Amino acid sequence: MAKYINEPAHTFNEYLLIPGYSSCECIPSNVSLKTPLVKFKRGEKPAIELEVPMVSAIMQAVSGEKLAVELARNGGISFIYGSQTPEDEAAMVARVKAQKAGFVSSDSNLSPNNTLADILALKEKTGHSTVAITEDGTASGKLVGIVSSRDYRVSRMKKTDKVSTFMTPLDKLVTAKFGITLSEANDIIWDNKINSLPVLYEDGRLYGFVFRKDYDSHRENPHEMLDAQKRFIVGAGINSRDYAERVPLLVDAGADVLCIDSSEGFSEWQRITINWIREKYGDKVKVGAGNVVDREGFLFLAEAGADFVKVGIGGGSICITRETKGIGRGQATAVIEVCKARDEYFERTGIYVPVCSDGGIVHDHHITLALAMGADFVMLGRYFARFDESPSQKRTVGGTVVKEYWGEGSNRARNWGRYDLGVGEKKLQFEEGVDSYVPYAGALKENLAKTCSKIKATMCNCGALTIPELQEKAKLTLVSSTSIIEGGAHDVIRKEKDGEN
Ligand code: RVP
């Protein structure tokens, strides 16, 4: 006979936190959001810890290289999407790893044949005043000079003047060789009183720049996620079909952690994939698995050797799995049950397997709720898709500035590997996701800082200075639908609407 669970499954929106006692110590600046990303043994430190408990979803519209760098710079990490060829995904990972913190690949490039008008237009577009002049006008071409605002005066020159006539040529520039350390580069900048240092490959092609201003920004980003060689930490999505081909390429490209990306992870396919990775690489290659929504699913993946387990079916903003297939579970209930199983598993085995709550975060406080319910970190798609750094197009629709955001199960993404059940057909039988717009929200940095400050403030209200303390002390209450209405502004005429979070 079928098993019935007659308790309704709840979403984050149906819970609130009840404040606990907060001492004078409980102020946001004392709160740490550090959290484990991968499993560890009792008494040991996890191999990778996140500085902020947020990772970006394994999606075409979210986790490209630009977002990966910016998120790592600010304490989280991205999982580069796997719905592209193994070669393309590995190349994307390699480009993130090539962006050493402090070494930036040049986004403003022209050739000597361009004109002052081109310089001005580019400056307007990128907001950057240093333009690399390369033979072919690309970011990795042979460097022939640099144009900075000191090289021209618009009032005294013609817009048609050729760049070659006013750039600072290579022989007048201080440059460094690829392989130089960041601190050596900074010493050269200080000793020569220059604002930027081009770093060149042996054959004169441009690798990137070190900027004086980044020395300060380095100090401004104390939460950077860096590996031992000061490269940004990055994750990558894999599937349970082409792992034998994909995983080696991703590992060679420098991916720090992998995640099997599937809409339903309680499957033999995931165990086979993890086994293959363990046989080939032992524990050196970290791999998360999922998604599951109950105790059984968690225990299966933990025992299969997953480094973290991802929770959530059908709660994603673009996801129609529940409508299409009738599977899933309210995200809050799923997280609560899985985290209880995680704690029991830890008690029994001494191995702590972090839990990631994936999808369905609508308001910033949902992140705090997920953490309070036991999640170690959350994965977000819609949230990150709204930012400048996401790979999708910015548009104006009906007077509102939006960015495009589409599900991996939509016809647009065609991520068959995430949804097929071993059928092996390289096409989707039916859609499980939609193509949509999300309101454009600006730069990742400011948004993330605001979200983190909200999380920290709530943690202080609960008397918690760390995520484990929050999980121990949190008092959560279910709310009635009437009290949800009471939670927003009500019975007043609003003058203006706040931002959506
Ligand atoms: P959200 O943050 O609510 O936008 O949800 C993102 C999550 O939704 C992803 O991490 C993934 O688990 C899920 N997803 C991605 N594509 C689809 C789909 O097409 N159904 N679902």
UniProtKB/TrEMBL annotation:
It catalyses: IMP + NAD(+) + H2O = XMP + NADH + H(+). It is an enzyme of class 1 (oxidoreductase). CDD domains: CBS_pair_IMPDH, IMPDH. It comes from the Bacteria. GO terms for biological process: GMP biosynthetic process; GTP biosynthetic process. GO terms for molecular function: IMP dehydrogenase activity; metal ion binding. This is Inosine-5'-monophosphate dehydrogenase. Its EC number is 1.1.1.205. Keywords: CBS domain, GMP biosynthesis, Metal-binding, NAD, Oxidoreductase, Potassium, Purine biosynthesis. The keyword Transport does not apply. InterPro entries: Aldolase_TIM, CBS_dom, CBS_dom_sf, IMP_DH, IMP_DH/GMP_Rdtase_CS, IMP_DH_GMPRt. Its cofactor is K(+). The lineage of its organism: Bacteria, Bacillati, Bacillota, Negativicutes, Veillonellales. NAD(+) binds at D261, S262, S263, G312, I313, G314. Residues 103-162, 167-225 form the CBS domain. Pfam families: CBS, IMPDH. Belongs to the IMPDH/GMPR family. K(+) binds at G314, G316, C319. It comes from Dialister micraerophilus DSM 19965.
